[in-house]
Amino acid sequence: MSESHAQPVGKLARRVARILAARGIDPTIPPTEAAEPRPALVAAEARIPARYRGAVAGHPTVTAWVRDIAAGGRPGPGGMPGIAKGRSLLILGTTGTGKTHEAYGAVRSLLIAGVRLRWKATTAADLYAELRPRPGHDTERELMDAARCPLLILDDLGAARSSEWTEEITMRLINRRYNEMLPTLITSNLGPADLRDQLGDRIASRLAEMTERVILDGPDRRRALASERRHTAA
């Protein structure tokens, strides 16, 4: 190749070098590979309530459950595990002890571990509200969507006012997930005896078999944080 053909290339290279230098970029240093964000985790962040988007599971039983579910996942596209059958968790504790935090932390931990995950989260009260019969709304489909979802967070079970209708809905939901051995993260402010009184023996019996119990105790974290903010402001 003649010098007349090489010259424009040299000018272009020097121009690019000047632009990079002006931007503080050294072209002689090889670029580092940035870690690719996990698409499932990125997508999940939009669905997780803002307060729990940084949640991390910390209770030993919850973290052990995450490991078991991740290890038992069936292979999917690209070799990534997908959630399979498994045990559920019943996370009990008084108000403000971190039950919902642990539940969302468990979901985030599974996504971080690379588990392909279709999941749904709802409170018991919201679920009942969604399933109230009304014209033009397929409540049966809504119920089956929650009952068949590979992973379900059912928050604040037992907090809503009980009736024959809510007991029937809860029984159908829990029974379906019990029979199919679908992992479910259930939280409640009630103790085991109160939960049985609120939900009935049929539901309580299935929960006793399908779940590992996690008891969270201690002070109300929300009140403690509010007190700390007031102390700092003072």
Automatic annotation (TrEMBL):
Keywords: ATP-binding, Nucleotide-binding
Highest taxon of source: Bacteria
Span of domain IstB-like ATP-binding: 87-202
Recorded GO MF terms: ATP binding
Family matches, as Pfam families: IstB_IS21
Coiled-coil intervals, chain numbering: none
InterPro entries associated with the record: IstB_ATP-bd, P-loop_NTPase
GO biological process, one term: DNA replication
PANTHER family linked to this entry: ATP-BINDING PROTEIN RV3427C IN INSERTION SEQUENCE-RELATED (PTHR30050:SF4), CHROMOSOMAL REPLICATION INITIATOR PROTEIN DNAA (PTHR30050)
Protein name as catalogued: ATP-binding protein
